[in-house]
Amino acid sequence: MAIHVVGLGIDPDTLPEIHEQIITTADVLVGGKRQLEAFVDLDVETIPVTAPLSDVFAAMAASYNARKEVVVIADGDPLFFGIGERIIKEFGSENVVVHPNTATVQAIASRANISWQNMRMLSLHGRNDYTPLYTALMQHDHITVLTDDTNIPAVIAQRLLDRGVTWFNIGIFENMGTDEEQISDCTLEEASNRSFSKLNAVLLERTGQPEQPLRIGIPDSQFATERKLITKRPVRSASLGVLELEPHHTMWDIGAGSGSVSIEAAHLLSKGAVYAVERKSKRVALIRQNRARFGAVNMDVLHGDALECIKDLPTPDRIFIGGGLGSNTTLLAPLCERLQCNGIIVVNSTLLSSLEAAKNHFKTIGWEYDVTMIQAAASRPLADDIRLDSMNPIFIISARKPVPEKQSD
């Protein structure tokens, strides 16, 4: 005897015969309010799926242990952002049988006449983390998104517009599989000002590219800057190397300036996010301009005092301080405290006093650190040849937060 999890596809009225037979012979039917309403004529005990799920699972277990035939119904395919995985984890794979059906993404692909094997599929249903969507926009041409009452098409469109995205259009698929089905193809601007049916999903389709490709080693001249103040390309590359970024990491860039380090870091953080913090409004505008220019969509820009801005940010795996430390290490203590254990903090400095201040701070808190000095030179035309212009030497101080030793019993 097993718990059956049945996918309803996009239209419960067109169920395969075996699916319908399993549902109509159930003793207990489990599903959301809308799914249960489709089978209101059945003389069957029902368990509505509501929060917390622990109560739902307890009721299911009681029925299952009483040898009742328990059937769970779910929209689309139960194992595509559905309840199927949770039920398998709760009751064990050997006690669950899943009956698949057409997933929403398949229906969207067929309506839009596009293949879906390379499509990125995401769900914002019950979620508030947009990072997977932002990184998907940087890597894919088609992204389908399952929505909810909070993450509606207008909100999604506005989120992307706020990050300077202009190279995607959005398709809204409403009431799929019903007589009220409707498909709207919109620009992000249009969608941000429209209302749609509560039952919808969206397809984001690439229509172009950012102004410049996002990559490592971007020429300094391609960034919008204030008086050419920027972490120069050789130093930027070295700093990113010392940060040892991994794809899933969260990085803070404190005193982001033009945002050049954040933008190239965004390219490396293919599953992660970077938060660029800057207190000067003119530089914040430049960072946003550069973010849009290079399509660094997974980059958040925060305007204000660093200590205030970081209060509600997710715990960082990496922290970069590119400027503004001076000889005052007041900022270092709270940053080091927030850093993930085994995380890395990197401080760039042109002043010996800043170098000494950072070294002394890391010594005081017992962290091992390394110092690298970069003194690069760039070619300039001279007569029929070139000469080399030296750049200011930059000290790169890096430290790793120790992992606390486990206490022995």
UniProtKB/TrEMBL annotation:
Domain named Tetrapyrrole methylase: residues: 3-191
Pathway named in the protein's UniProt entry: Cofactor biosynthesis; adenosylcobalamin biosynthesis
Domain of life: Bacteria
GO BP, sorted A to Z: cobalamin biosynthetic process; methylation
GO molecular function: protein methyltransferase activity
Keywords per UniProt: Cobalamin biosynthesis, Methyltransferase, S-adenosyl-L-methionine, Transferase
InterPro entries: 4pyrrol_Mease (IPR000878), 4pyrrol_Methylase_sf (IPR035996), 4pyrrole_Mease_sub1 (IPR014777), 4pyrrole_Mease_sub2 (IPR014776), CbiE (IPR012818), Cbl_synth_CobL (IPR006365), Cbl_synth_MTase_CbiT (IPR014008), Cobalamin_biosynth_MTase (IPR050714)
NCBIfam families the record matches: CbiE (TIGR02467), CbiT (TIGR02469)
Protein name per the record: Precorrin-6Y C5,15-methyltransferase (Decarboxylating)
Organism: Halodesulfovibrio marinisediminis DSM 17456
Lineage per the UniProt record: Bacteria, Pseudomonadati, Thermodesulfobacteriota, Desulfovibrionia, Desulfovibrionales
